[in-house]
Give the backbone structure.
Amino acid sequence: MLSGQLLRRLGSMATRVCLSPGSAGPGPVGPVEAAIRAKLEQALSPEVLELRNESGGHAVPRGSETHFRVAVVSSRFEGMSLLQRHRLIHETLSEELAGPVHALAIQARTPAQWRENPQLDTSPPCLGGSKKTRGTP
Amino acid sequence: MSGALRRTAAALLRWGRGPGGVGLQGAGVRAAGSGAGGGQAEQLDALVKKDKVVVFLKGTPEQPQCGFSNAVVQILRLHGVRDYAAYNVLDDPDLRQGIKDYSNWPTIPQVYLNGEFVGGCDILLQMHQNGDLVEELKKLGIRSALLDETKDQESK
């Protein structure tokens, strides 16, 4: 039937759109992003772990993994100051922070705090500062 | 009070673009730049204790070179903190690495209040949003301008 043909055609269109390089939406997950996710999951057993590669907004080559924002929601943070929470995340990701990761914005919340405002914030726009010394955090 | 704080926090989160919002009025800010003395632990110890409010930035308060450093400048501006020492780590590679080691903190900006490390942009923003910054400034004898702003609004 006609509708069947239409469906098939729509289906193949959808496939083409999804596969077309440079289409909108999040890019493929790179090795650094994967490592960050795995390490945080292992160290903090988070209820929620949202990770965004924000490198595209900065003066770095396409596909870079230099600037990230992460929301970690874990009951491990109960009773810890913000400074302690951030230090714990820094320690967990010390390898990445000493290497490829140049900027890491952190939202470290307890489950109750996350429920008050459950969203990954937006980082301020890059002002282009480290162009001269690109690559050194 | 919390309403006004929330509104300014929301305004801040919109991260106005362009140099319009960057200017500091009455700049009592001492841009110390490369006069920071290299970045050895003892020197840094003296440096962070010399002033009540000390920030390490990429760029200067007048011209921050990074969105996160700009956010720190804007938060201090909102609270009417004009008298603070700002050091530009882009002017001094030794300071840039030295302060990271000294604070055991991998990124810039960094904020010190009364010689104590507070954190970076995320923590200062959180303290701004939850009202802790007003309290911490009060301990230093600095009255946050947001308190006066709130009073004005309430008396209308």
